[in-house]
Amino acid sequence: MNDFNAELTALKRILSSKKTYRETVFNIFVQEKLSAKDFKELKLITYSILRRYFSLSYEASSLFPEIRKDDDEFYFILLLLFYLRYDLKTDKIILREKFLNTFNSFRLYGDFNYIYDKVAKKTERNFTIPENLKDKPYTYNSLVLEVPEFLLKKIVDFYGAKKASEILKHIHDIPRLYCAINKNKTNITLNYEKEHLSYADIYQIPKDHDLKKDPLYQEGKIYTIDYLKALAIKDVFIKPLSFKALLLNQRTPYLSAYLEEIIKDHEEKEITAHYLSSARYRMALDLKEKFNCQISSPLLSSLTLVKTFVKEDYYDLVFLQARDTNLGKAGSRIDIIANLNEKDIYNHSLSEKSDLLAASDFVKLGGDLVYLTFSLLQEETFAIKDDFLKMRKNFAFVKDNFLFPEDKNTESGYYAIFRRIR
Fold first, then answer.
1. Does 221 reside within a domain?
2. Which of 100, 172, 214, 298 lies 20 to 30 Å from 237, alpha-carbon distance?
3. What are the tens digits of pLDDT across the range 265-284?
4. Structural domain count of the chain
5. Torsion, Cα of 164, 165, 167, 172 (10° steps)
6. pTM of the full structure
7. Do 84 and 154 share a domain, yes or no?
8. pLDDT tens digits for 147-195?
């Protein structure tokens, strides 16, 4: 390609329109009819800039303080900084020409030659955090850790400086995946590292294993399972003989498949898996057939309308997956931290509180309610638990647990279990 239009478009959609990285690059690939080579370049460059977003943004703002962070010109400068500093293969004359084509194509404001030459001079040396920022430890360490300053403050206030540093050092790590065997279709033995979690076994997928190309995965004989969800199920009381579960706000059907294996020999059994998205609901229907699931029933509805389809005071387990910031998934979702802001955290916490209160109506006497979030923020963990216990006196706290990114090298988060006592 003779320009960087695809890369600049990707940055705009992700950072301005808050689209996900995967959705964005795939849509551009389709819309622009990119070659396989150009698609690979688009993914690599976009990912790399998002991974260095805070240091690149600091440098861009220092060079051009008059440009706002939500301007197209700012995204152009991020792209320019990255290419001129890290692309050592492309001829500089060709680079300049491609950037000029992009500048003109997007009709950006300013003097292209002035901007290009200023950035080129700056990138002659590697980026180093200015020494004077050591007097501002939050600013300094936010650049070291590539996280927003407000997030660093929140994590330090909640966990203390030492634990916060450990969490944020690993928050960007690509997580390890876990899987379970679909015993509806096979009785194979996996040679992966196994972990027994009370009711069922899960396996850590080898780091370099391409699961999508694995015939066992393609045939539905194994499926991925979030370690955090499996850990939460381990701590739930699953009654013998009869067990009914309602899984709310599910993103994938894998938890229902995992739970089905655990209760398949019960005399009475029922699993209703609720989805907010029609696309996820359709996937659940497809995988129900692929996995040969016998118990699970997918349900498409808003959370407020769930009660028109299922009974209140009925379930032994209600498992709520929070509509959260997904901070604990930052290692697999490179767009999350770059787009995180305090307003969104506040709005998510409001949704989480109301969703948990609504979910509690479906729990029968003696049943368990699980609140699970892929977040480590106080507003989405302890604050939700404490507020719920104040407002629902008919529930008792059973236990809670954090899974940090450094614990299992996987996606992190928190869950709390409550039991209905009256």
1. no
2. 298
3. 999 999 999 999 999 999 99
4. 3
5. 130
6. 0.94
7. no
8. 999 999 999 999 999 999 999 999 999 999 999 999 888 888 888 999 9
